[in-house]
TrEMBL record:
Pfam family, one: IPTL-CTERM
Domain IPTL-CTERM protein sorting per the UniProt entry, residue ranges: 199-224
Residue intervals passing through the bilayer: 203-220
Record InterPro entries: IPTL_CTERM
Name recorded for this polypeptide: IPTL-CTERM protein sorting domain-containing protein
Amino acid sequence: MQAAAFTVGAGGAAYHGTIDLACDDLEVNGPLDASGAIFTGVGRVRISAAGSIAAAGARIELGAGWHNAAGPAGFSGSGSTVAVVGRCSTGSTADITGNTTFVHLSAVQAGQTLRFAAGSEQQVAGTLTLNDVTLQGQGGMAFVTLLPGGVQQIGTVGVADVDASRGQRLAATGQNGLVGGNAPGWFALAAPAAPSVVAVPTLSQWCLLLLSAMAGLLGGRRLRAQRTTAMPPFDRQAH
């Protein structure tokens, strides 16, 4: 099925089929039961403060953005997947705002940039899959947290102002594709600096010979002094 848009009003709705939105938005202003549904060709997912998506086993493919004004309660569903894809993106970017706990989150479109609102946190409880993408905090630090028990499949990525230190370390054996990018909780830890070595001055051959000679003279003087002290006093009466 293909539709120009999908809007859920305050009264809520249920949908369990497959639908292509042809790059229009998924607008959720009330409770949406989308268990088992497949949404493709989504431009932006917009969840209002009164909206929510129960997405057990569902898959949502979006290109331009994810905006969740309802916070963590705005999205739930075991086995669900949210995939940021190249189709419907705006200038190869996708904007992500609000705080959401995803089960599986994927972004593998080469050259795409995910821009996270400053202060927002995206948690992943299942599998976080990233490759050939850039993650940027917009206007300040944002947070991406892989929760305990979560799995990461991360290839080459660039990160700037996105903090992963609230959860598992991400891409722990990799390197940042953005040189100098601020990326707490990402990539391999820097090797400890090698201890500094202080050069100890050495003595030349002539100095060593001079010291040896001086030591010999001092030793000879001590020996003569000991012999003089040990001699008995001269007895004149014996003669």
